[in-house]
Amino acid sequence: MDLYNRLHEPRTLEAFVIHMHLAWLYLLHAELTRDNVDFRYWDRKRGKRARLVKVNGEPKTWELSRCVENRWKPNDPVSYLKDQRSVSEG
Q1: What is the mean pLDDT of the segment spanning 63-80?
Q2: What is the value of pTM for the model shown?
Q3: Which of 13, 56, 66, 75 could form a disulfide with 62 if both were Cys (CB 3.0 to 4.6 A apart)?
């Protein structure tokens, strides 16, 4: 918490946003693991076995927006905030 309370430190807001993003991502990944949902990306080509998509040797997992879509219904306020974030980034 000291990182966010230091007024003279640059980028305290950016650090807070990044940490909150990661916290929600890890929380939703834990829920998906608990519920036995496979949240990894698979490469499914015709006529071949499905293979895991890998990034730096590790399986690629769902990003936060896909986890939110899986967790909450489209009319939920959390989904609304996700959509607003996408509009502001675009």
Answers
A1: 79
A2: 0.69
A3: 66
